[in-house]
Amino acid sequence: xxxxxxxxxxxxxxxxxxxxxxxxxxxxxxxxxxxxxxxxxxxxxxxxxxxxxxxxxxxxxxxxxxxxxxxxxxxxxxxxxxxxxxxxxxxxxxxxxxxxxxxxxxxxxxxxxxxxxxxxxxxxxxxxxxxxxxxxxxxxxxxxxxxxxxxxxxxxxxx
Amino acid sequence: xxxxxxxxxxxxxxxxxxxxxxxxxxxxxxxxxxxxxxxxxxxxxxxxxxxxxxxxxxxxxxxxxxxxxxxxxxxxxxxxxxxxxxxxxxxxxxxxxxxxxxxxxxxxxxxxxxxxxxxxxxxxxxxxxxxxxxxxxxxxxxxxxxxxxxxxxxxxxxxxxxxxxxxxxxxxxxxxxxxxxxxxxxxxxxxxxxxxxxxxxxxxxxxxxxxxxxxxxxxxxxxxxxxxxxxxxxxxxxxxxxxxxxxxxxxxxxxxxxxxxxxxxxxxxxxxxxxxxxxxxxxxxxxxxxxxxxxxxxxxxxxxxxxxxxxxxxxxxxxxxxxxxxxxxxxxxxxxxxxxxxxxxxxxxxxxxxxxxxxxxxxxxxxxxxxxxxxxxxxxxxxxxxxxxxxxxxxxxxxxxxxxxxxxxxxxxxxxxxxxxxxxxxxxxxxxxxxxxxxxxxxxxxxxxxxxxxxxx
Lengths: 159, 457
Description:
By secondary structure, chain A is α/β, with parallel strands linked by helices. Chain A has helices at residues 3-10, 34-43, 107-118; strands at residues 15-19, 26-30, 51-59, 69-77, 82-90, 96-98, 121-123.
């Protein structure tokens, strides 16, 4: 079964492009449809993607790619033993994506990490605060325009 | 879901309900110095909890973007510092997948053997820490003794115990040393003996069982929803193991079982780990029996002479035909392996396959080797995978360890993302300990096998 074709036929106006480079099936979509697609992936009995393996982001500033950010979701199905990568395009002007917390609770921490490192906001996230860095940290270090050697004072927790 | 997070404060009726906020960690010995749990207690019972991580954040992903592809390998040693070999192999496999590179059979077998040695070390350390935190210090020393046999093997092969940096894109740093097979078999024998003693000491020990059984339970559905993998998931009864589900290296040629639990409690996780160590040792024995001599990295074979002789000849100016020869050196000094001195890139090899550094004797001994080395090390000249992305999962000590590498076509990784296996477990931890006793937090936390190096990166 070709997962890419199935998704393309189901959501023709959502899918921007697809590829299966290195054998990883990938679907690039508009960010508005991420919750719709994720719901379909999770509850469709044919696909049955019951695990959100990884969620991250890539900043394409240095590669001059438009739009600047791409959210990268890796799904895995324990029952069907297949994987899928979904990438959602995010513009620099409005770095905001819908949360997947309601579908997979693990998205809570993964999305906090993306907010911490890339400054992308998640709509309806229950607890969107920094996870690896401290609240007083200025900037989002994994963005390509954040200098590698920049120093900031470490401020410990207040309570 | 909206109710899942509520800020932890002592409310107005705190005095009535006698609830109390307490910090466990980051300076608590059982929290390994790097985790802060904020517990809301009612007497001894945990009413609610919040986990705070990030105390060991070292910007791994940012650092990985600064150097070239090979310079990331030492950073991966420090991710899961109990089983650094698996991290090494996970990362280089992701880069190899991106380049479409097929490593040699012997390299694959070496990777399997070293991964499994690391896995046993990982499980031993995890259970050892758990038992020690529960007060069984004698058992801890037994586990450390068993681990020492395996660490000696790691040291013998890589030249280091922890910061090993043994993997290379395209193979491994050096071949296994002489006498490795015999030493491994005797080390496995000793480990088995120690494990049997420990089994008698711990598995039916009334105090130990009482502390672990029925504690820290997570349901199968919750574990899947939280993306938990590894022994933690298998203890709930799901037989997911990356080595079986998507065999990499040569795991598909090896016969082994995946132990699963049924209750998803701390005791099941202990049993799963104990059995997995036996399976890992089975894998090592089979791999040792199956593997054949051959090159350990992508390269043609060459005639061998002692390394010192080669250097002497080069010093005297006798460089003719030197690049056709291989040098025999001490395994820990070997640049890339015995089979691989004839300057790695025979004509006709595609450009992007230029991956292996020449052996040190070649780099220091002849101009071709030096140029070769130079071309791979200089910024802007090194190995450059084609533009694209690849995700490669391996079975780490704690679960699925994934590396997602994005290349922009230059010699530096554009983005390296690690999917740390204990991150999902820690995300679910507040749920696991809720409703239990405060003393059980320690027992449960031990069986998570939280490794801060990969959790915080």
